[in-house]
Amino acid sequence: MTVPNTGRAPLRRAWRRLAWTLAALLAAAVGLGGVVVWQNTYALREQKVSLRHDGALLEGVLALPEQGEGPFGLVVFVHGDGPVDATHETFYRPLWESFARAGYASLSFSKPGVGGSEGDWLEQSMDDRAEETLAAVAWARGRPDIDGRRIGLWGASQAGWVLPKVAARDGRLQFVIAVSPAVNWLRQGRYNLLAELGRDGASDQEKQAALRRRETVLGLLERDATFAQYRAAVGDADGMTAGRWGFITRNHRADATGDLAAMRGTPLLLVLAGHDVNVDVADTEAVYRATLPRASLTTARYPDATHSLVDHDLESSAWRLAATAVIAPRRLYADGFLADQTRYIRDLNSFLGGR
Prior knowledge:
CATH superfamily of the largest domain: Alpha/Beta hydrolase fold, catalytic domain
Largest sheet: 8 strands, mixed
Strand content: 15-25%
Radius of gyration: 25 Å
Number of helices: 13
Oligomer: single chain
């Protein structure tokens, strides 16, 4: 007797299609996961390291090339503003890999109060930060896997007030790479204020109001006003904290010109972005060219990059920026930037006869 069709066969076919769809999605997810893991795997050997400086313990990372025993050249990282950990939330790793390709290790310590380091970075002056960097260089020169003759500095943004101080005091440094540095704290602040207002479409009235508020703040800084006095004069703190106000009062007179002049010809790569609303790159380049010997200065420009050397269009899209950071972190940086970092170190090393 033939059993009548009760709809089970179409149901089985539907379940099979669903199963195949789920399997395909799972395979895609596994494949994407593999891509993510691969893209976030770097040709490096990372070691956790620590340094005791000025009575406080600093914790960091020494990233060695994947192969070899050394001694390797070394790039010591100097952070920009903010609570930055040793890896800059992994943002540094593509750079470490680019230097490893040139046979150089990278060394980075978390700022005081960040990532296991003791202290409070907001209590530091630019001189304090320079002392900390000099201590890191001295620590590295004591290691058998580091070539003390081939140590250089890499720093971004606020590091522009630290790098020249260190290079002026340590004539043995092989090079300095300054990414998006400012020269004068107060000029940089005014430029940044107006650039952000212009980007956001502020009216002339809004710009004038912001400049008046700025003049009030500058007057308070000149008088070494307390945070309470700042609050009384300005009213809305606009995100300002007592710690941040203290940091600004210690550092608002910073100007790199004198330290740049004292560097005595240390080779320097100046990296400038075309969409920098934080730093007036024209002012920076003019001062660097007027102050440093022509033979020691190399300039690299990235017209499509922002202050952080990320592609401007990419940084303008939150979802693209987040996706790229996860799926292809090396592509966060502007085209050519990572390769140019490798090339600069290789060419400099070749020019100096592999010292």
